[in-house]
Design goal:
Number of strands: 10
CATH architecture: 3-Layer(aba) Sandwich
Order of helices and strands: EEEEHEEEEHEHEHH
InterPro entries: AlgH-like
Largest sheet: 10 strands, mixed
Helix content: 10-25%
Number of helices: 5
CATH class: Alpha Beta
CATH topology: VC0467-like
Structural class: alpha+beta
Family: Belongs to the UPF0301 (AlgH) family.
Strand content: 25-35%
Protein name: UPF0301 protein SAMN05421720_104210
Distance between the termini: 27 Å
């Protein structure tokens, strides 16, 4: 992939953009086993998404602000920092509601947007950012055709996504919430295959 984490193209025509991927027992990449990923872009140029169910233990939002040399807010915000994926792991990203739009924001749909700038993290810290946000370090990327092949190979289940799933307060329940939308009992996941 290029240095730009968001592949360009007409994201609105990509059927998986704005949906969630849930890793199945067939997932071959151990870093993504058990992952739920919000897919920000899926086009002929590749795909990019953010893992939404894995908090980085021992890493605080205040620590991230310090590393980025951003001013500390008056109140300590209790915002978890997520493992967004194996690419660009030193880069902070914000997946957020579409009520917050800057020049560098990618609006994904009427409910969701994505911003990968220090200013967005500063605004979140100081309460001037989006109504709801998920902060992550890193992202997950696929070259052209790879994600499609992984879905065909039943490494991922695909489900609809909305802010209630993406911003659910308990990250460790997001896989169960996503599976419930498909009518799948998590205990039977290993026996399920195919597309939503």
């Amino acid at each position: 992939m290029t240095d730009d984490p968001v592949p360009r193209g007409d994201a609105s025509r990509c059927s998986l953009t704005g949906r969630c991927l849930v890793a199945t027992s067939r997932m071959r990449d151990p870093m993504l086993a058990g992952a739920v990923i919000y897919l920000c872009v899926h086009s002929e140029q590749g795909a990019m998404g953010v893992v939404i169910n894995r908090i980085l233990e021992g890493f605080s939002f205040l620590g991230l602000l310090r590393e980025l040399h951003l001013p500390r807010p008056e109140r300590d915000p209790e915002i978890p920092v997520h493992f967004g994926g194996p690419a660009e792991r030193q880069q902070g990203f914000a997946l957020h509601t579409a009520d917050y739009v800057r020049d560098d924001t990618v609006v994904l749909n009427a409910a969701m947007a994505f911003t990968a700038t220090r200013e967005a993290l500063r605004d979140i810290a100081h309460g001037t950012g989006p109504r709801r946000a998920l902060v992550a370090l890193g992202y997950t990327g696929w070259p052209p055709g790879q994600l499609d092949a992984e879905v065909r190979d039943d490494q991922w289940l695909v489900t609809d996504a909305d802010p209630d799933l993406v911003f659910a307060p308990e990250s460790d329940t997001k896989a169960d919430l996503a599976l419930a939308r498909l009518g799948i009992d998590p205990a039977r996941l290993s026996g399920e295959g195919g597309h939503a």
